[in-house]
Design goal:
Helix content: 10-25%
Shape: elongated
Largest sheet: 5 strands, mixed
Number of strands: 20
CATH class of the largest domain: Mainly Beta
Radius of gyration: 23 Å
Mean pLDDT: 90
Low-confidence stretches: 1-42
CATH architecture of the largest domain: Sandwich
Number of domains: 2
Order of helices and strands: HHHHEEEHEEHEEEHEEEEEEEEEEEE
Length: 415
């Protein structure tokens, strides 16, 4: 990718990256000296870092996995206004489940439905901002990383004055008034009412990276669940139902998925090994998703392709993994932030816009490595994460239906 944010990222990090490589012992003395001395020439490492994606993703750069025929964001503006998918016309119904009713005194529907003006009034005192990577449960790469802004969903639920028999909250968005197209998610009410395990609240989100949510990103209002996969963060939100049903009835639950699995920690390459020559250093870059258990390191391993591996070790736990370098926080965040700065009062950032820790949990980080040259031959490159609890990818949850965590394998040849 090209553009000013990438250039700023590279300028801000190249010196730091060199120092990290030398400290980590990932470069030979000759290669380190060459990189430090050759400031005006493109090195292999510089070339791959130039193509490194920004930490934040611009709204129109997010991968889109929207559903619907037609997809709601593709509707003409007049139709979106008619069905409540503009800020001026948006309304949210918050009602009791007719089949498994929760006791509430003040349902919000019809003339009393919650409006965008009501949302903005709440935002004057209850605004929340936090970084989060948006990932699909069954896709092996993030859709995008952003700073999400909204108000806690619980603040609206309390307006209905619930008193008892409330165990689950169901919610869905607009899908062409067609029941067959409805895509629904749910959460236990305890997760909405209380921020467990030092998590941000579940929010009614109206901004991404400091700008109003676009229709493609689920605007005017969507749910964002910080620790969850994307199917929990319903777009084009129109209905919230308070239920006494004790179990999930998510659309994904009927499709053989684990609907309560939080984000996993895993990594993959952005710049995999190409077709290096013998003895030529091999630059590699990648990203790592820091899931619910955080991220402590990324490791890599290059294996000769004809080398057999024990079937009793399917996750390569006994392989000679080597630590890669986790890049530090960038000077330029990307994402087309207003003024290029992290918005004030964003969770996990101080008032100067610097992260209070790194890598940030429930977000992403970048890593890189300059691997020493190899003899001619055929190889397999693999990378894995070690989470903050010491578990190596794909553990502790290797099952595909609870989110992607498979170790990436990239074949390449040295000729």
């Amino acid at each position: 990718m090209a553009g000013d944010p990438i250039r700023q990222f590279l300028d801000g990090h190249l010196t730091l990256t060199r120092r990290h490589f030398v400290q980590a012992g990932l470069l030979s003395a000759a290669a380190a000296a060459s990189i430090n001395a050759d400031e005006q020439q493109q090195t292999q490492l510089t070339e791959v870092l130039q193509d490194l994606e920004p930490w934040l993703t611009e709204q129109d750069e997010f991968r889109d996995v929207s559903r619907g025929k037609p997809k709601p964001h593709s509707l003409p503006e007049e139709k979106r206004a008619e069905v409540g998918l503009t800020r001026a016309t948006w309304k949210l119904n918050v009602t009791s489940d007719p089949e498994n009713p929760a006791r509430i005194l003040n349902p919000l529907e019809g003339d009393t439905a919650f409006t965008f003006d009501d949302l903005m009034e709440l935002a004057k005192t209850n605004v929340v901002r936090f970084p989060k990577v948006m990932t699909c449960l069954n896709i092996g790469c993030p859709l995008g990383n952003g700073i999400w802004e909204g108000v806690p969903l619980r603040d609206v639920i309390w307006r209905t004055q619930p008193s008892e028999n409330l165990r689950r909250v169901f919610y869905w968005g607009y899908h062409n008034d067609d029941p067959e197209q409805m895509f629904r998610s749910s959460l236990p009410v305890g997760r909405i009412l209380e921020d467990l395990y030092d998590l941000p609240p579940v929010i009614l989100c109206y901004k991404l990276n400091g700008d109003w949510l676009t229709p493609e990103r689920g605007g005017p209002v969507r749910v964002v669940v910080p620790e969850a996969y994307g199917f929990k963060s319903i777009k084009w939100l129109t209905n919230v139902v308070l239920s006494n049903l004790p179990t999930a009835n998510d659309t994904y639950a009927t499709q053989n998925n684990d609907v309560d699995s939080p984000l996993k920690t895993f990594c993959a390459t952005l710049t995999p090994p190409g077709n290096p020559k013998p003895a030529e250093p091999i630059p590699v870059t990648g990203y790592a998703q820091s899931g619910i258990s955080g991220l402590s390191k990324v490791q890599v391993w290059i294996q000769p392709r004809d080398e057999e591996w024990s079937k009793d070790d399917p996750h390569f736990t006994k392989a000679p993994w080597k630590d890669a370098t986790l890049l530090p926080p960038p000077d330029a965040w990307g994402g087309n932030l207003p003024g290029g700065r992290i918005p004030q009062n964003t969770r996990d950032f101080d008032q100067s816009g610097k992260p209070v820790d790194w890598p940030l949990r429930l977000s992403k980080a970048h890593w890189c490595m300059l691997h020493p040259g190899l003899p001619a031959g055929k190889y397999v490159f693999r990378c894995r994460t070690i989470d903050a609890n010491g578990h190596a990818q794909p553990m502790p949850r290797p099952f595909r239906k609870s989110g992607h965590a498979k170790i990436e394998s990239v074949r390449f040849e040295v000729t």
